[in-house]
């Protein structure tokens, strides 16, 4: 159901029709002529003159007369709505005691009364003809809980005050990421009554150890301290706070990566008890791991535009791990890919579009976005790319590190230049734990999702160590080709060759040259031996012919640029 303004209006109109149908059925069961279900108004008159009169007469017959209780059979005999409740479980009245049957009768009447109470609330929708007027009426008169952003409150403040909008309580979530002025405006969305504000309670929920509001003007940010939220100001000046001392989002091992930033942060009991937290991540030896990524083709971070940082090796590695997890059976919507720079975000999206975005066996991750944008959200598995290889950059801000480490529930896999980040003093508490584990990715390819192996338990399957991105890309490519061959879907979807194949393009060209030379000297009826790339494409072409294979078998350069390697020939 749409829970927006017009979604609520549509729900009210649909619910009104359903309730009027119930009124029509009740009218028919009582044998009352006319059309009581025409509008909410006629239904109200029907309830007042027909339903209430029958109920009052019934109560007068079966009520307790002095010290003697009426016969228990009278409760069911005189009940006027027997036919209406014919679709209820029978018998309605058990006949065991007077008190029990009277409670059932009163419950039936409460059900009928609730129908007409709701219709009375919906009566205004018959008089207000436009959707806008109906939505305003629901907002001011009927809504018990109203959700909006601080920005929307600022934009619509004049309209809300004009409507006579009233509220007693305000709950602000992510209050530490809201500007001071944006925090103040929602307090003024109503006119005072008798010179006093009607507001009785203001609750702010936030984490001042995470990222502050985004201020793009550096002068305002640095010299006016405008990035300080009102929540953070209250904490700094000593306003009493209620500090939460237990988390229930992530595994205890993942919580250790950031709980050093908080005072006495522990874990809720369900983190230790629920199976999803105690079960290992299928196909992966560790629940979190820092994976060292060296230069790919001699390049680490790049900067095609000022401050637009990208790292092709990390981007390909992240996408390869995502594809590997999906091939094992992980739902793609339970995996999110995060990075610390916009340039890397766009590069990863391009690679996903190119390699697996439209592949039905893999698909797309839940989100590909930046750490800053993902604050306040979570997912089961997070793949994080730190991008930089020359300088630490803005990850030196510990608040950004806390956000990055705390987004995952079950698995966190970080791709970075370890030699750079492990020497950063501000990041030491987290990276000392990350570097305590191997810096090469450890996978268990024969362990499908989901697994019964417990977290930290020695796997019964063979563990394979991935030392670099080209090895991982080739492994995923071969794994995919084997999968579609064994499932008899080989012809349905081809996977683009991994980036490591680009390095072998010169060798492929030499093989093509040798094949062309053989075709000139060998008769047309002679057999020819296909190249390794041809064998992977599983096509049979008469050896006397030379053709260019379809696009799925092209050796393509990684990234968003055009293909650079020549097509394989058969």
UniProtKB/TrEMBL annotation:
**What domain of life?**
Eukaryota
Pfam families, per the entry: AAA_11, AAA_12
The biased composition feature labelled Acidic residues covers 503-521
Q: Which reaction does it catalyse?
A: ATP + H2O = ADP + phosphate + H(+)
Q: Kindly list the biological process annotations in GO that this record carries.
A: mRNA processing; RNA splicing
Q: Where is the composition biased (Polar residues)?
A: 528-548
CDD domains to which the protein is assigned, alphabetical: EEXXQc_AQR, SF1_C_Upf1
EC number(s) for this protein? 3.6.4.13
Signal: is it a keyword of this entry? no
Q: Where in the cell is it found?
A: Nucleus, Nucleoplasm
Its assembly, as annotated, is: Identified in the spliceosome C complex. Component of the XAB2 complex, a multimeric protein complex composed of XAB2, PRPF19, AQR, ZNF830, ISY1, and PPIE. Identified in a pentameric intron-binding (IB) complex composed of AQR, XAB2, ISY1, ZNF830 and PPIE that is incorporated into the spliceosome as a preassembled complex. The IB complex does not contain PRPF19. Within the spliceosome, interacts with SNRPA1, SF3B1, SF3B3, SF3A1 and SF3A2.
* Role: Involved in pre-mRNA splicing as component of the spliceosome. Intron-binding spliceosomal protein required to link pre-mRNA splicing and snoRNP (small nucleolar ribonucleoprotein) biogenesis. Plays a key role in position-dependent assembly of intron-encoded box C/D small snoRNP, splicing being required for snoRNP assembly. May act by helping the folding of the snoRNA sequence. Binds to intron of pre-mRNAs in a sequence-independent manner, contacting the region between snoRNA and the branchpoint of introns (40 nucleotides upstream of the branchpoint) during the late stages of splicing.
Protein name, per record: RNA helicase aquarius
Q: What is the lineage of its organism?
A: Eukaryota, Metazoa, Chordata, Craniata, Vertebrata
Per UniProt, what is the name of the gene that codes for the protein in this document? LOC109677793
